[in-house]
Amino acid sequence: MSSAEMRGKPSEGEGAPTWRLAHLTRGTIGRLLTRAYRLRLEGWENVPEGGAILAGNHQSYLDPALLWCATPRPTHFVAKEELWGPKWLGYLLDHFWAFPVKRGAADRDMISTASGLLGRGELLGMFPEGTRNRDADSDELGEAHGGVAFLALRAGVPVVPVGIAGTEHALPPGAKVPRFVPVTMVLGEPVCPDDFEGTRKEKVAAMTAEIMSRIAQMRDVARKA
């Protein structure tokens, strides 16, 4: 197993104690954040067994943290490489199911790690917009990148759209102190790679458009919940 793959999940050897610690911490932090944000997760029945990508709208640094806490199954996350700058933060990210991506270029390590996790039946959390939407109150989502669809097609796994509402008010871009307001996450029916035809480029484009449409629908449902 490569060092890139090891970032996603320690083996039963040296990394196992840290993996167990991550499970324990996830449970403890999850209970605290669930209460603080009155966190609701709806539509979990739409998540299939085995590997899948959870793809959500991105409007706050809280999005991955709350989704990480809310999902009944462990979820790994892709995060921008710059977050590994501070050593303490990089250490935490490495040992709590996150791994880096180099933005603006094809990152073979990220693709290898993500494909390995999905192939082992793990869940992967991603945000197709790539960065926080600074106009989160708008009905429009940010411009999507094709990485989610590319990985789904490559690994042959479905993408579950996740609509997130509330984090845009809890910790919007620029805010330093979070507010404890209700947060709702709604998971929709999966988008399956087998439903798309054409060249790889055409399939990535069509699947990306469908994923974003479903995310917008789920976000609207979450706002009304």
**What is the helix/strand order?**
HHEEHEHEHEHEHEH
Number of E-type strands: 7
Q: In the residues, how many domains can be counted? A: 1
Tally of helical segments: 8
CATH fold name, please?
Glycerol-3-phosphate (1)-acyltransferase
Task: Give a summary of the structure in a few sentences.
This protein is of the alpha/beta class. It has helices at residues 3-8, 16-36, 62-70, 87-95, 108-119, 147-155, 167-170, 200-224; strands at 40-42, 52-56, 75-80, 98-101, 123-126, 159-165, 184-187.
Give the topology.
Elements: H1 3-8, H2 16-36, E1 40-42, E2 52-56, H3 62-70, E3 75-80, H4 87-95, E4 98-101, H5 108-119, E5 123-126, H6 147-155, E6 159-165, H7 167-170, E7 184-187, H8 200-224
Helix pairs in contact: 2-3, 6-8
Structure report:
- This protein is of the alpha/beta class.
- It has a single domain, classed as Glycerol-3-phosphate (1)-acyltransferase (3-Layer(aba) Sandwich).
- Helix content is about 40%, strand content about 15%.
- It contains 8 helices and 7 strands; from the N terminus they run ααββαβαβαβαβαβα.
- The chain has helices at about 5-10, 15-35, 60-70, 85-95, 110-120, 145-155, 165-170, 200-225; strands at about 40, 50-55, 75-80, 100, 125, 160-165, 185.
- It has a 7-stranded mixed beta sheet, sandwiched between helices.
- It is globular, with a radius of gyration of 17 Å.
- Mean pLDDT is about 85; it is low at about 1-15.
